[in-house]
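User: Before I run my own analysis I want an independent prediction to cross-check against. Here's the chain; please return only the structure tokens and, at the end, one sentence I can use as a sanity check.
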Amino acid sequence: MNARKVTPNKDTKLFVLDTNVLMHDPTSLFRFEEHDVYLPMFVLEELDNNKKGMTEVARNARQASRFLDNLVNDSQDNIDDGVPLNALGNKNATGRLYLQTEFIHTPLPATLANGKADNAILGVVSHLHTLHSKREVALVSKDINMRIKARALGLSAQDYFNDKVLEDTDLLYTGMLELHPDFWEKNGKDMVSGVVEGHTFYNIKGPTCRDLLVNEFVYQEEGVDKPFYAVVATQDDSVATLRTLTDYTHSKNAIWGITARNREQNFVLNLLMNPEIDFVTLLGQAGTGKTLLTLAAGLMQTLEHKLYSEIIMTRVTVPVGEDIGFLPGTEEEKMSPWMGALDDNLDVLNQTSEEGGEWGRAATRDLIRSRIKIKSLNFMRGRTFLNKYLIIDEAQNLTPKQMKTLITRAGPGTKVVCMGNIAQIDTPYLTEGSSGLTYVVDRFKGWPHSGHVTLQRGERSRLADHAAEVL
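Assistant: Structure tokens:
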């Protein structure tokens, strides 16, 4: 693009996009509202180099190229004068897209290698900074080192923020709320409105009700004679109904021999065992019981209650260390090394009954494994699961788009459970704020058929708990 054709405008900014932004989110072209977007020629070349293959990056590169092609073809304007970003019906994008059509030679430090794509893009940004000194020009990149180099050269650079659900994950919905001692005085509590199947219902009315969400857990442990645990059954403006919980900490309510060890685990089992809840998200560090509780509830409802025909478990295959190469065998055999957590938890669940001895436990284990299918994410597209209990482990490594692809596989009678720890993300370019798990927690909160709990307390061992705190 002829850079001199960019119309100076003090009120809007000019964003130069790095390739990784488009390969991370092809719709990023339309996320800058009234500001203009500039694409260096090296970005187009890198999109072309990465468009082949079936990976998520390749699909995004192809989609970004299609967007660019449609924008250029649908616009009646000269490409040198910029292409309106709202040409494809994107009303929020009122800026213009500029493509580099001229060779730009801007002196950079001799230590920066010539011909390298990153340095060529920095040269374009430097040229635009000089050319439009009265306008804010900023490089947008997901590459930390790229942003550091830009700032070292005195150029403005920033991360791509539009994919983030929250800037501060401490504000992420936890799924539970502690009631203040004066809660009942401010909101009032009617006489018990009814008792249904052992659950007591309370109708409350007051200003605090506006902040409550359906299926949010509330509790009060201090300043009361007996701890109070309930879930928001209904909420409408300043009126809400609270329903008391099933006490899964008591052995009489054990799920496949497992009882809740703390308040959050009790909340989790109330969600997992509720057939009206179709979608459950669980956050928590290692050892908080996410997988164990999910499997116990799944086995109970699959083998005992016959609510689901089988359990399907999948996870993202992102290695923590070096990749060990291709794995032999069938799809399930290839996935088995990634499913160590499944085997560990099945060992715990299979020790709960001593009546049948070793032979009985072996037979039970074979029965359990016959009802649990291990599937790869690579073959999920186009499938529909009917009456299945779908477990998505390590969901923090999924992008929002991948998460949408998985959840929309659910057919009638299927329950989906997503669990993970957003502090342990292994996927490049994903952060706590842009993870697919964070995305669904925020988007599904308050839906009557979904629930979320952030588990706080580890129950694995005192060694694991102390390591999580100090390391």
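Sanity check: The first strand starts at residue 14 and ends at 17.
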